[in-house]
Amino acid sequence: MSNGRSGKQGEARRYSYVQLDVFTERPLEGNALAVFTDARGLSDAEMQAVARETHLSETTFVFPREPAVEREHGVRVRIFTTEEELPFAGHPTLGTAFALRGHSEASRIELDLQVGKVPVGFTREDGGKVFGEMRQVDPKMGESHSREDIARVAGLKVEDIATDLPIQTVSTGLAFAIVPLKTRSAVEKLALDWKRVAEYTERTEAKFLYFVTRECVYPEARLHARMIFYNGEDPATGSAAGCAAAWMVAHGVAQADERVLIEQGLEALRPSRLYVRAGKEGDRVVNVRVGGHAVEVMRGELFL
Q1: CA atoms of 234 and 26, how far apart (whole Å)
Q2: Residue of 25, 46, 58, 72 marked active site
Q3: How far apart are the first and last CA of the chain?
Q4: Domain limits for position 225
Q5: Are residues 165 and 216 in the same domain?
Q6: Predicted local confidence at residue 1, as pLDDT
Q7: pLDDT of 11
Q8: Number of domains composing the chain
Q9: Which residues of the chain fall short of a pLDDT of 70?
């Protein structure tokens, strides 16, 4: 596979990529991800431009290294949105690990991200489908937010926001304020002014807002979720789901190490299923895990 660094003068550099739909078992659902499997030779500016070209919520770039280095440190991966590089994001981590695993029977892939080494384990389920689960870095439970502030910036009524659970910032590498709403109707009617939200989050620890409700479409789901950011509607947000897992365990919505389902993406017509769990050591929430399926939908080459 060409890494784009060689070739005759004037010849286009070629970069292979694979596109997957993540947190789904069905093509054209879940969250789409482009993975450039050998990005050596691409500059930071070129990677950002390529991410704008794919126009997906995230695009990842893999930088192969010597096998001994990868065994010790993991496979080097960088994650870009259309606007910026992220230190961590959930569906790009899971999707990239699926892409690297390919059709092998590997039971574990370790990625070297800006937040450190993130392992992704794989198991084969009844029926033959492969389930992947990443372990995120231990959560940092951050500041609480007032219902009045969030209602104002999110265009909600204060009474839309649950009173028995806190609005709290949590980070497992990327910080989200988990906002519990009373009803699914309130989540479905969200009409965020991103500029207003961004002005608020710039003054807080949170990078984005993750809206959840215990009223779900799927009877087996624990939370119905929605995340809207500068790139539009995110069908599945694995980093936020990990934060929500920690938040659920911290506040009694889920038990320690109980695997629960978060449904997301229904409003975007990209249904997604994110399976999450987190443990406890004393009063600390630890061992956050987020899992799901992925399906390859496209392969191609980029010419530069």
Answers
A1: 17
A2: 58
A3: 15
A4: 140-288
A5: yes
A6: 40
A7: 84
A8: 2
A9: 1-9
Q: Based on the domain organization, do 167 and 132 belong to the same domain?
A: no
What does the pLDDT read at residue 2? 44
Residue whose C-alpha is closest to residue 247's, from 190, 170, 187, 138: 170
Least Cα distance to 157 among 176, 182, 178 occurs for 182
Report the distance separating Cα 294 and Cα 105, nearest Å: 15
281 counts as catalytic? no
CATH number at residue 208: 3.10.310.10
Q: Is the dihedral of CA 15, 48, 263, 177 positive or negative?
A: positive
Q: For the chain, how are helix, strand and coil distributed in percent, rounded to 5?
A: 20, 40, 40
Buried b (16+ CB within 10 A) or exposed e, 267-290: bbebbbbbbbbbbeeeeebebbbb
Closest CA to 61 of 39, 85, 30, 44: 39
**Statement to judge: residues 151 and 57 lie in one domain:** no
Per-residue model confidence as pLDDT tens digits over 97-150: 999 999 899 999 999 999 999 999 999 998 889 999 999 999 999 999 999 999
